[in-house]
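User: I'm new to structure prediction. If I give you an amino acid sequence, what do you actually give back? Let's try with this one:
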Amino acid sequence: SDRPAPQSVASDDFASGSAAGGTGWSNDWQEEVAAGDILFTAGTLRLRDPDQSAQATRSVDLSGYINPTVSFTYTTAALDAPDTFVIEYSNDGGATWNTIVDSFADGNNNNGGTVSNFSLGGVGTADTILRARFTGGSGGNGEYFAIDNLDISAQLPGSPNYATSYDAKVGPVS
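Assistant: Good question. You get back a string of structure tokens that encode the predicted 3D arrangement of the chain. For your 174 residues, that looks like this:
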């Protein structure tokens, strides 16, 4: 059947400079574990790594949607070999996590990149969470990774694809 085009459900370009920025989210960005390690600066969400425990999460309700995806860009600064991070998602309120970016496995510690339309599963859930966190290393506040242009898109289930063309004759009934 024909499905409607994906639409943006939640997004954040971090231009607001605050944890409450963007639209469509269930909550503000939550700073977990180490206070002061996440910043909203230069139009990005920045996680710095003085103690390898910076972590930020944000929730979105994707119930009623299908084929949800996430897209974003990320950059790094001054990270060295032991400084590693992951960007991941959960569809079950944080009980289990799925990796989107793993800087150690990807070898991208100092490169950054673009993630486009990464699948968050076939069916959206009410308790989807995005999480960005450091997994190793330590250093000064000048060592960080930053996320920008974050968008979660999904489709609404289409109605059944009944006939798409009709052969109707117009005229008097005989």
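You can read the tokens as a compact description of the fold. Here is one thing that stands out. The longest strand covers residues 66-77.
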